[in-house]
Structure formats: structure tokens, C-alpha cells
Amino acid sequence: MRFRGVLTGLATAMALALSVQASAAQSLADYDYTNLKFRGLGVEWGYLWPSRVDATQSIGVRADLGYLGPGVRIVPSITYWSSHLKQGEVTKLANRMADFMVTQGQLRPTLDLGQIKWSDVQFTVDAQGVWRVPFGILSYVGAGVSIHVLRGSGAAIDGTFVQDLLDEVTAGLDAHGGLEYPVADRVRVFGQARYEILSHLRYAQIRLGAQVMFGQPAPGEERR
To answer: Higher-confidence residue: 134 or 92?
Structure first.
């Protein structure tokens, strides 16, 4: 499957990047936790291809908290997306609802649930291995943990057990990689590819954005 291919590719890139960092990240200095501080704030737009809902857009904000170790940056973010369940998923829910409603001696009802919306507010903390590549570009690969607040809604399911099935708070994991370019001393643009894994949902995603930086760049991050 293409999603599995994306995840495998990101995992391979991460392994390669970590091996490169042993030599390349020295230009980013030997940082420790004392270098963790709020350094920048960015906005991002994304597009994702989920396993259970229609492809959709996302919006989000992210913060740059600096370096935890040599070349290891910490980036928390908040992301939101909303879409409609795929028709096959709606049919499955309709069948479960019909099974719940039928009683002995009655015919099984046929239900039309219409469109069902599923939305997600995601809180993520990513750890990224960062190194410089030619043309003044910063590249990175990383992994993260997240909390997802998922909510389902629809005229036919509001207030039913089906809505309860879709409403949940769950943990997630991600692998990602991307590029950043400083277009000015205090402004960076970035692009990123991600693969997210939740208990009942998987999706590949791309994100594009811009970030305003505060303070001086870390050694090795200077604009060239």
C-alpha cells in the first residue's frame, strides 16, 4: 500500500539522517536541555489522505523550542482537520446501528445515515534531527507523539451510540521529514511529509508553512 511505502521511506530516511548527524550535526553545537527555549512560531497548511475519511485540508500552528541535544530540535504543534467518512465506513456504521435496533421477530431495518463528519484536534510534540544541506537549506527527519481529540457528527447519529463510537481521545505516533529555508533573517518557509498512526486511523500528510524566528539562530542555522 502507498501509505506503508511512505512510512517505510520516512523510517529509512530517519536512519540515514541519524547516521549522518554523528559528523554533520557538530556545526549545530553540543546542545543540552539548557538550550530549550521558545525561539519561533509558525503557521501551516496541510493536506492529508486518511484511511477512513475523504482526503481533506488541515490548518495548524507550531512552535520552535530549540535544541535538546546535538542537532535534536523539539517542535510542538496544534493541528485541526475535518472531513466526511467514506461511504464504506458509513455503511458499516449503518449496519451496526440496524443490528442494535432489531428485535426478535422483526425485520432488520435499512438505515440511511446520510453524511457523517469526523474532525480532529491534534496536539503533537515532535523531535527532529536537523542538519544543513547545500544552498543554505536545513533538512530534518523525526518522530513524534500526539493526542487526538476526535469528534463525529451527523443529523442521523447525533445523540446515538454511533456518535459515541466516533467521539474519542486517543494517542498517536508519527514519522516525518522536511526542508526549511530562511528567506530572511527572521523568517523561514518549510515543507514536510508525515505519516500518522492512530488506533483506528492512518494517514499520510503534507504540510507547508512559514515561521517567524525570535532571537539569534543556533550555530549552523545562519542564513547564507
So the answer is: 134
